[in-house]
Amino acid sequence: MHIEFNFNGYLPDQYSKHATSEFLTQGIPTHSFPFTVKDFPENTKYFAFSFLDHDSYPLVSFSWVHWLAVNVEAVSGGISENLKKTSKTAIFGQNSFASPVMGLTDTNITWGYAGPTPPNADHKYTLSVHALSEKIDLKSGFFYNEFLDEVQKKSIAMAEANVIARI
Question: Where are the alpha helices (DSSP H) in 12-165?
Fold first, then answer.
């Protein structure tokens, strides 16, 4: 199983802090990028994925969670752009913008995709995708630890890919 993007090198601006206003919510990029999962197991019905910034660790003392989703349809392996608006089955978890430190409460920002906003340098982000043969039982607004617990129980295959976002 592997992940493919329709861009090379850097994440296109429309999915990061450089996006135009139509792709931002209160200054945060909330329009997710598309990608494709290839060569996933035949019995895959759904995907679960996380999008993390491990380069944030020196700045905030943890890896920043930018996107959590489970129960994303695996019909063709294609994950559509702006998934929160296009998927009928996906359930979204809380990202790190939901942290009390950030003070944000708008679930349009804190649940689902909140794209890269690297403050100090280009950052490398890790997209981890899990193939699932059945749905995961989580409710909207779940946390990363809950994601890990459930995915560990039900993942039948996994792939990771890195994306760079510019400062």
Answer: 57-60, 83-86, 107-110, 144-154
pLDDT tens, position by position, 24-81: 999 999 999 999 999 999 999 999 999 999 988 888 888 899 999 999 999 888 899 9
Closest CA to 84 of 96, 72, 75, 76: 72
Which residue's structure tokens are 């950030």? Answer: 102
CA distance 19 to 32: 11
C-alpha triplet 2, 6, 55: angle, nearest 5°: 70
| Amino acid (1-letter code) at residue 144 | Y
- Strands (E) across 1-96 are located at 2-4, 24-25, 28-29, 35-38, 46-53, 64-73, 78-79, 91-92
For residues 100 and 128, the answer to whether their CB atoms sit within 8 Å is: no
Tokens of 77: 């392996």
8 A C-beta contact, residue 51 and residue 126: yes
In whole angstroms, give the CA distance from residue 133 to residue 42. Answer: 9
How far is Cα 9 from Cα 24, in angstroms, rounded to an integer?
22
How far is residue 58's CA from residue 153's CA, in Å, rounded to a whole number?
Answer: 31
Q: What's the pTM?
A: 0.93
